[in-house]
Amino acid sequence: MKKIIVAIDAVTYNEYALEYAIGVAKRSGGMILGVFLHDLSYIYTDIPSVFELVPVEYSHIIKKQHEDTDKLQLNIQLFNERCNAEGIKHKAHLYDGTNIVDFLVKESVFADLLILDEHMSFTHTTSDQLSNFIIDLLEDSNCPVLIVPHKYLPVDNIFLCYDGTPSSVYAIKMYSYLFPSWSQKITSLVSFNETSSNHLKHSENIKDLLHQHFSNLIIDVENSYHSDAIIVDFFKENCTNGFIVMGAYKRSPFSRIFKKSLANTFIKEVKVPIFIAHN
């Protein structure tokens, strides 16, 4: 039984993150908490400070609030109907306010998994950019995060990113605990070495661990560590219907992917679910 949070823009509903959440909940027998985030920062942006002696027209703010209320009520209804249709235990929670990241970080303390749409943002970003909203949650979330593409895709192949660090091992363990029903899928442990050596760091230890969790395991040691572009190209070429597991925000080639400049390229070009956990 798992508790899965799916973050949903209360006004701009996107069903893809929910579809992934339903898939996880069905396999685990868990429940989905749909957190509908209603960003009210536009109100404070349009209201002058007490030191600005200027007349203010509030009618457009009131109009937008009424429009938002109609949309969010419909979107919560769609969420409930979709979960009921799949027989999934669920709750809907509406958060009205600012400091959306802080709220979601606190909610993540009491969740097994947080699911985010890759394009989710509450500030203006282009479609090929990873928003500050997602970057901040990856840094601060208290549970693993699953970033999903803007389209529901089947998963046939699992890629476990490994660099010998505790962070990468922790991510693999968390994935195995949360997705035990996928233990028989084709699972590749991918490691990038600085040299031409095929040596796997802590080889015996990591193999002993993985063989307890995955019955269809492949070890793949690549030799192109120094190039971020080569890492991205590897996943573009090999990750059709894939699912990537990685630790984040440590000094490793994989964690560099989620420094913002490279993250934009990675998310844009490698269109698969990405499971990120850090300890």
What does this structure look like?
This protein is of the alpha/beta class. The protein is 40% helix and 22% strand. It is built from 10 helices and 10 strands. The chain has helices at residues 15-28, 41-46, 59-86, 100-108, 132-140, 166-178, 203-210, 228-238, 253-256, 260-269; strands at 3-9, 31-39, 89-97, 113-117, 145-148, 157-161, 186-192, 217-222, 242-247, 274-277. Strands 3-2-1-4-5-10-9-6-7-8 form a 10-stranded mixed β-sheet, with helices on both faces. Strand 7, helix 7 (203-210) and strand 8 (217-222) form a beta-alpha-beta unit. The relative contact order is 0.14. The mean pLDDT is 83.
Summarize model confidence as the mean pLDDT: 83
How many β strands by DSSP? Answer: 10
Distance between the termini: 22 Å
Count of DSSP helices? Answer: 10
Structural class: alpha/beta
Shape, per Cα inertia axes: globular
- Low-confidence segments, given as residue ranges, are none
Major sheet strand order: 3-2-1-4-5-10-9-6-7-8
User: What series of H and E elements makes up the topology?
Assistant: EHEHHEHEHEEHEHEHEHHE
Report the helical percentage: 40-55%
How many strands, what sense, and barrel or not for the largest sheet? 10 strands, mixed
Radius of gyration: 21 Å
Strand content: 15-25%
